[in-house]
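Exercise 7. Predict the joint structure of the components listed below.
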Amino acid sequence: MPSFVTILDFVGTFAFAISGIRLASAKRFDWFGAYVVGLATAIGGGTIRDLLLDVTPTWMTNPMYLICTALAMFFVILFGKYVIRLNHTFFLFDTIGLALFTIVGFSKAYALGYPFWIAIIMGSITGAAGGVLRDIFINEIPLIFRKEIYAMACVIGGLVYWICLVSDMDSVLSQIIGGITVFITRILAVKYKITLPILKGDSENP
Amino acid sequence: MPSFVTILDFVGTFAFAISGIRLASAKRFDWFGAYVVGLATAIGGGTIRDLLLDVTPTWMTNPMYLICTALAMFFVILFGKYVIRLNHTFFLFDTIGLALFTIVGFSKAYALGYPFWIAIIMGSITGAAGGVLRDIFINEIPLIFRKEIYAMACVIGGLVYWICLVSDMDSVLSQIIGGITVFITRILAVKYKITLPILKGDSENP
Amino acid sequence: MPSFVTILDFVGTFAFAISGIRLASAKRFDWFGAYVVGLATAIGGGTIRDLLLDVTPTWMTNPMYLICTALAMFFVILFGKYVIRLNHTFFLFDTIGLALFTIVGFSKAYALGYPFWIAIIMGSITGAAGGVLRDIFINEIPLIFRKEIYAMACVIGGLVYWICLVSDMDSVLSQIIGGITVFITRILAVKYKITLPILKGDSENP
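Solution:
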């Protein structure tokens, strides 16, 4: 029986893949292109993390991620017209994925003995770098550099997770609190349109 | 005396480098920029593969790839005007490169003990990821996500190669059959303009 | 007491980060986006080098690079309007960074036993690849593929450094001569607007 975390991992991967496939379809990519962009969105963050940590990328140890992206692909092909109406559902899934990926990424680095600030960065990369890769593939400026708080939710959640850990809190409880922090930060940011300030350095003279 | 495979490798590298250099020249890159884009097109796929497999990138073990790209560069500088007329020749070279790179990439992963689906992906990355890198460098949407069947030819060839291997066919014969499959799939796709369907998810609302 | 090289490293990182942050601000990135682009500019080259050499990326061994980028960020936020007037100062800093990063990258590869041509490439990647990453993030064609001699200064400096080394010159002296070569090449290139030729392959038929 798959564990709860495995189910969440599947939900997150599915939602991330859908986000990549939808944006690829808006650019009129073919099925192959859409699949690759969906896959990159879903596994890109974890792959960059694993290259930096010098371990085998997770997706190379389990075909689940490829299969899950294929399912997301069929889903968009079959229900493309209805996917728009499910925006709220996908936003929820995407946020679950973001929270889970952040905690998984943090835990992996921390378990390898890296200090907390590396773990926070690895959590954020796991959660947010797939979306950057997606936007590079579709030739757009990465959304997370300009929209509401997204990767900052990973940083905050990672920080809370670490504070729980050094307070000798139970490991599983710490993970849950860290993940919920990412989730709530992101939900609040979207609900109240909380954005970071735009940097006004010398935009008049780029 | 260089082996047949070494010659094919040189031909493929040369053709891939030419493809990068030509597109860079269309964007008015300088010599250095064109060389880098040519090199990235030729060795980019193999480098991404080797980073994922955690082995030393092939181009770092043999200066042949840098020299071959330099030759491609001089070729375009000297014969730029005539290169256009050689479109058919380069298409042939490019397809030979695609077939060879796919088989090399598959074999490398398979020899390291990875399962067939990883080997197929590594073959496809070796064949097609250099072109994606090239298109990112020249700031265009990657061509292979939208044009005729290209990376899919790598997937199909890899699959055929694997079927040959598990059928206890001779290793060299399997490689040849796999490579020819890539070659023919690509040739047929271009000749008959075979494309994958465009994904129509929600392009009206991107 | 920090050594002279540590101070130069800080200066170079600061200047590279400023360059990324300024370009991000011109694209109206938020604080987070600008920080990430600044960081990628500063540490991107070294990270790609370390992934290729299969060693732990330098920035993961010392939080100095993250802190230095944060300082660059605060600097732009506070003194944004005046940063423009400091163009000459930043050009100087950026060139110091380029020279230092080139020598550091060359030395790292050479100390690991790689041949001189790999070391030259690693020096150039350390110096110039961060800027390529920056331009990909802000969705522009990489500047170094088209503007005055930049990465070529790294190649020339690396070559001179290597010639010094094989001439049995003192190691520190070789580094200084190599670094000064990068510095002067770049300064002269900008002062006299020295550019590499534009490649005219078949731009009329891209």
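Discussion. DSSP finds seven helices and no strands in chain C.
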